[in-house]
Structures are given as structure tokens and as C-alpha cells.
């Protein structure tokens, strides 16, 4: 039986359960690149440019990397890494540079912070779907006005990723990202769907239909294979949009191995 999220003991009562903690340098480079390229207006317009990295794991390296990447958009960005495990918090404090980069014990309640942007990656897979939706609501209730949550999952080296972007109004977009040379078909990303979708990849559900359609586009784009997997991915994305799917981005982002769609395209 899955454990319910709880308030962990301690001075700062943190909502949630510790993750496995596994991480690697550059594991989250794809979502970081997407945030800097797609959410730059949000970051530039924020009155208080605070970003939270929730559940960074046993090493703070991905939080440090995120801070460096986001500062290419806004140099005065402040980044706060949150973890429930006290040893992980101490590991973060060893590389902290407050107030620009700091680490604190906290969970879904965000330790009292009110960020404009929150990244929560590989955090919700251990929860039930109901618990994951509750975590969405809890995190969103702590965001600054107009703030966004980016919640998703990736493989151990960051070559296969998916994520959902959430606002106070609910889920907004869904993104698939990968290294095109590292897949046989786009539906290989199904194993990394976020918790809200991973159990919905069955006939009759929208996310299953999306992946099947994208695989069909990939097959149609086979003549582009001699130009490389990236060219084939770009053509697959173009075909997906041509077939009526609500694709939000363009060739500039497709070339990076990304496809973003309106959430309604995959909503359970």
C-alpha cells in the first residue's frame, strides 16, 4: 500500500516523502533549456525573481546548474533548493551562495517561499495519482501570483523527458523532449510520462492517441533519416501539427528535440 504524504518531523514541517535521491550532472539540461527559452518573459517580468528547485536529490548539482542557466535570462535571479532529507540540505549548503543560491529543508509547502517558478522533477513518481494531484494543488497554492510549476520526469541521464506546466488555473502545456538519436520511436518516451499521465497510456486515452500519432508521423518522416535523427524529429513534429494536434512551438524548438502541446491534447 502506498504511503500517504506526511508532515516530516522537525522544526520546519515539510510536506512529502524523501525521493530516491538519484541525480547526475546535466540530467535536467533539457527542461532548463526549455525554461530559459520559453519562460523568459515570466522571469524578466517578475517583481521578485525567486525560483525553487524542489526535491533536487542527493547532490545539489542540478540546482546549481539551473541557477547558472536561468541567470543567462535574468542575472539577479535567486534560486532556492528544497529537500526533506537533512543530509541533502547540508550537501546543498556546502555550495550555497546566499541570497543568490540557497538550500533549505522543505517539501510541497515550499518552506514558506513564494516563487515565480518552481521546478519539481522526478518527485511524484512514488505517489499515487490522487496524491500527485493533491501535490499539484499544494504547490500551486504557495506560488507567487502568476507563477508557474514545471513538473515532470526524465531518465537517469536526461535524454528522455516529459513535463507539465501548471498555473493557478490548472495544467497548461505538456512537453516531450529527447535526444532523437536515442530513440527507436517517439513512444519510447512513454516510460517517462509524469505521474498524471503514465497510467493513462492505454487505448481510449488522449496521451495514448498522441504517442500513437507521433509514432505514425515518425514512420512517415523516414525519408528524412539520411539527414539525421534531428531532421526526422523536426519533420515528425511538423506532420503532427499538420494533422491538427495543438502543437505550440516551432522548428527552432523542434530542432532541440522538443514538442510542446496544449494540455487539452492529453488531459485524462
TrEMBL record:
<dbReference type="InterPro" id="IPR029063">
    <property type="entry name" value="SAM-dependent_MTases_sf"/>
</dbReference>
<dbReference type="GO" id="GO:0008168">
    <property type="term" value="F:methyltransferase activity"/>
</dbReference>
<dbReference type="GO" id="GO:0032259">
    <property type="term" value="P:methylation"/>
</dbReference>
<protein>
    <submittedName>
        <fullName>Class I SAM-dependent methyltransferase</fullName>
    </submittedName>
</protein>
<keyword id="KW-0808">Transferase</keyword>
<keyword id="KW-0489">Methyltransferase</keyword>
Amino acid at each position: 500500500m502506498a504511503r500517504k504524504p506526511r508532515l516530516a518531523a522537525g522544526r520546519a514541517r515539510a510536506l512529502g516523502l524523501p525521493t530516491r535521491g538519484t541525480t547526475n550532472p546535466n540530467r535536467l539540461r533539457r527542461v532548463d533549456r526549455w525554461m530559459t527559452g520559453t519562460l523568459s518573459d515570466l522571469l524578466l517580468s517578475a517583481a521578485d525573481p525567486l525560483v525553487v528547485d524542489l526535491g533536487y536529490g542527493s547532490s545539489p548539482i542540478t540546482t546549481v546548474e539551473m541557477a547558472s542557466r536561468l541567470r543567462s535570462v535574468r542575472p539577479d535571479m535567486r534560486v532556492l533548493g528544497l529537500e526533506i532529507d537533512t543530509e541533502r540540505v547540508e550537501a546543498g549548503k556546502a555550495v550555497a551562495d546566499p541570497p543568490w543560491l540557497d538550500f533549505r529543508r522543505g517539501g510541497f509547502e515550499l518552506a514558506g517561499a513564494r516563487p515565480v517558478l518552481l521546478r519539481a522533477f522526478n518527485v511524484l513518481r512514488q505517489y499515487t495519482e490522487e496524491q500527485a494531484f493533491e501535490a499539484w494543488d499544494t504547490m500551486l497554492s504557495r506560488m507567487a501570483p502568476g507563477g508557474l510549476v514545471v513538473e515532470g520526469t526524465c531518465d537517469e541521464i536526461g535524454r528522455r523527458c516529459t513535463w507539465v506546466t501548471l498555473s493557478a488555473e490548472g495544467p497548461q502545456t505538456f512537453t516531450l523532449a529527447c535526444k532523437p538519436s536515442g530513440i527507436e520511436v517517439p513512444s519510447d518516451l512513454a516510460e517517462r510520462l509524469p505521474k498524471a499521465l503514465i497510467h493513462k497510456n492505454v487505448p481510449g486515452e488522449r496521451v495514448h492517441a498522441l504517442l500513437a500519432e507521433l509514432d505514425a508521423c515518425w514512420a512517415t518522416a523516414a525519408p528524412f533519416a539520411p539527414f539525421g535523427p534531428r531532421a526526422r524529429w523536426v519533420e515528425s513534429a511538423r506532420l503532427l501539427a499538420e494533422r491538427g494536434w495543438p502543437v505550440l512551438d516551432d522548428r527552432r524548438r523542434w530542432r532541440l528535440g522538443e514538442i510542446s502541446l496544449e494540455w487539452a491534447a492529453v488531459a485524462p
